[in-house]
Model the fold of this input.
Amino acid sequence: MPRRPPEVSEPMFGDAPTPGAPLAARMRPRSLEEFVGQAHLVGPDGALTRLARPGYLPSMVLWGPPGSGKTTLARLVADRFGGQWRSISAVTSGVADIRQLVADARAVRNAGGRTVVFIDELHRFNKSQQDALLPHVEDGTIVLIGATTENPYYEINSPLLSRLRVYRLEPLGIEELGEIARRAIADERGLAGRVALTDDALAALVDISGGDARQVLNVVEAAASVAEDGVALTAEEIGEAAQQRLLAYDRVGDQHYEAASAFIKSMRGNDPDAALYWCASMVAAGEDPTFIARRIVIAASEDVGNADPRALQVAVAAMQAVEMIGLPEAQYALAQAAAYVASAPKSNRAGAGYFAALADVQERGRLPVPLHLRPSSHRRLAREHGYGKGYLFPHDFEDADVDQQYLPDELVGRVYYEPSDQGLEGQIGQRLERLRRARLQRP
Done:
């Protein structure tokens, strides 16, 4: 008997919810009009509102954080489209499941119908699994709706992605999460008014959810399950039900890169408070502390540079401390280094000068070293053949400086490093300018 792919066990939206189903399942919206949030997609002028209609639905991928409504939205647009719904998970399904699903969809199409295939965690399919979908999406055998928490432009093969429309879902806001909680408490499908929420409890609930509607409903259900009928849940009861703040974070996914980006930009932007916040958020979410330390070292060179060379020393010392003592004690070193780098004067002139020099190397190749800069045997040969005076030892001259050529002949006069006026680099710039003027005055 052919194996059938695992299908969703939930009822269709028009059916009554399964008895005993979790609150989040019972409260799934039954239409796009009931859907809360994502107004850019399902509002009056939203992209999916205008797009999804009976008989027409393009293949797409819904990209967003957990609890933002990807699965629910997929079911709603599929319901409006009117095709047969099939659902598989990329975590538990393989190529054989895809082939069976496609065979079933082809039979439905031959009978005049259409099949919508929903694949949760689409990014977990490997290349061969994604390739197996490609021809059937292209020829219309299936309408594919994928859901992913990861950036599809990185995680989905380009040939398949080019045949999908990408829609980004955002974390739900305070007002939206509050509406979801209040609706679940009042609705007959939910708690039917058996409990209430104080304003403080609602604020605590929204605060700990991390923008995840599913977590909001799970915490409400857990708190209500031990409460007496007619009581108003307090912030303390919500906290006990949640146990701890729910941190939306994936150490290899979008949250990882978004938090790291915010951390780096905060240090570059001279905001130690924000830098410490993002640093703490990554540590609390389980980020590898050596990853955080490396970001601080990079910022110390890239963004502080010679405006305060001590920043690199502090950052490297913090990285060594992380490697030697680990967490939790290394949090102090991370905090010290992040705050120092964020507070230090900034200059990227050294790095900019390096990449300007690198551009000349890439354009011209490695140019010949001037003869007087080559090893002593070469310099002696140059003197014997009359090629200049040979190398002049700077320490034999005033200010340990002498006017001689160091760049290749083709690049004489090129300036790569132009110190800023920030911090110590301002003093460096003044010294270089003084040396340049002195050379011009020498005979």
In short: The longest strand covers residues 84-89. The chain has a mean pLDDT of 83. The domain at 23-168 is CATH 3.40.50.300 (Rossmann fold). The two ends are 98 Å apart (CA to CA).
